[in-house]
Amino acid sequence: MTSSKKIAVVTGASSGIGSVYADRLAQRGYDLLLVARRGDRLQNLAAKLEQTYGIKAETRVADLEKETDLAGLEAVLAANPAISLLVNNAGIARLSPVTEAPVKDSLSQIALNITALTRLTHAVLPAFKARNEGVIINIASVLAVHAFPVSSVYSGTKAFVLNFSRGLQQELANTGIRVQVVLPAATATELWDTAGMPLTAFPEEAVMTTEHLVDAALAGFDQGELVTWPSLADAGHWDRYDAHRSDLFAATQTGKSAPRLAIPS
Ligand SMILES: NC(=O)C1=CN([C@@H]2O[C@H](COP(=O)(O)OP(=O)(O)OC[C@H]3O[C@@H](n4cnc5c(N)ncnc54)[C@H](OP(=O)(O)O)[C@@H]3O)[C@@H](O)[C@H]2O)C=CC1
Ligand SMILES: CC(=O)[C@H](N)C(=O)O
């Protein structure tokens, strides 16, 4: 893709949250590289966004669980200096007790939610560092900090996204590269068609629309938030949680057994 403008890459742009990110980033003037498996959907969206916003949108069909497709996309991201923003959005949920789920479901979630996100981040970072500029938006989930009996693996993958992003933010703190992690609660998307539990399991008032979700996440980005909880009214919840987490970590640095665990002599 040749472009005089900045290019935003959105993985999982063929539906749900990713398709709204594509729309909003096009509205902000970015050219786009849209990635997913369903090429027809990507092409329809690209054509619509080109017409609506006068930007250039290319598509790339890729199954990010597959080595050849992932390696191909890594090469594209590493080679194109116009790429300045990556939304690591593609993800799946397979909500089921581990004892009842085939191991391939666990591995699929790990491959897409963790491995692909990590590799694509590695792919863009050298050029971002060389230019001292770039944006990475990682889509985690409120389940990054909460596990249900059916979400062991999914919650684990999203906890990875949160901690990976938090570490990167510290690593890149003195650079021009920004990493935002977004933690959506239940959002009305096709994810629920294959998640193993229906969206109707949530009370209607607990479910966000994709438009509200992405607009709130981008408002958080514009306000300089590094960790954005789009549905959380009181941001102080996160500040208190994070301060407590930090205190907990510091309190573990004692070098000796906790008195309650000490073996009586
Ligand atoms: N919906 C919700 O309640 C919440 C969602 N999230 C997260 O939001 C992100 C987006 O999900 P959401 O919009 O809800 O779900 P959707 O199912 O609507 O979108 C998922 C996107 O990922 C793509 N995708 C799935 N598998 C692959 C694959 N193997 N290779 C490449 N692309 C793939 C899909 O496209 P295609 O099938 O064409 O490949 C689709 O574009 C995910 O990371 C999810 O975990 C977080 C919290 C809540
Ligand atoms: C699937 C999700 O990540 C969602 N945040 C949920 O609340 O279940």
From TrEMBL:
<protein>
    <recommendedName>
        <fullName>NADP-dependent 3-hydroxy acid dehydrogenase YdfG</fullName>
        <ecNumber>1.1.1.298</ecNumber>
        <ecNumber>1.1.1.381</ecNumber>
    </recommendedName>
</protein>
<dbReference type="Pfam" id="PF00106">
    <property type="entry name" value="adh_short"/>
</dbReference>
<dbReference type="InterPro" id="IPR002347">
    <property type="entry name" value="SDR_fam"/>
</dbReference>
<dbReference type="GO" id="GO:0016491">
    <property type="term" value="F:oxidoreductase activity"/>
</dbReference>
<comment type="similarity">
    <text>Belongs to the short-chain dehydrogenases/reductases (SDR) family.</text>
</comment>
<comment type="function">
    <text>NADP-dependent dehydrogenase with broad substrate specificity acting on 3-hydroxy acids. Catalyzes the NADP-dependent oxidation of L-allo-threonine to L-2-amino-3-keto-butyrate, which is spontaneously decarboxylated into aminoacetone. Also acts on D-threonine, L-serine, D-serine, D-3-hydroxyisobutyrate, L-3-hydroxyisobutyrate, D-glycerate and L-glycerate. Able to catalyze the reduction of the malonic semialdehyde to 3-hydroxypropionic acid.</text>
</comment>
<dbReference type="InterPro" id="IPR020904">
    <property type="entry name" value="Sc_DH/Rdtase_CS"/>
</dbReference>
<dbReference type="InterPro" id="IPR036291">
    <property type="entry name" value="NAD(P)-bd_dom_sf"/>
</dbReference>
<keyword id="KW-0560">Oxidoreductase</keyword>
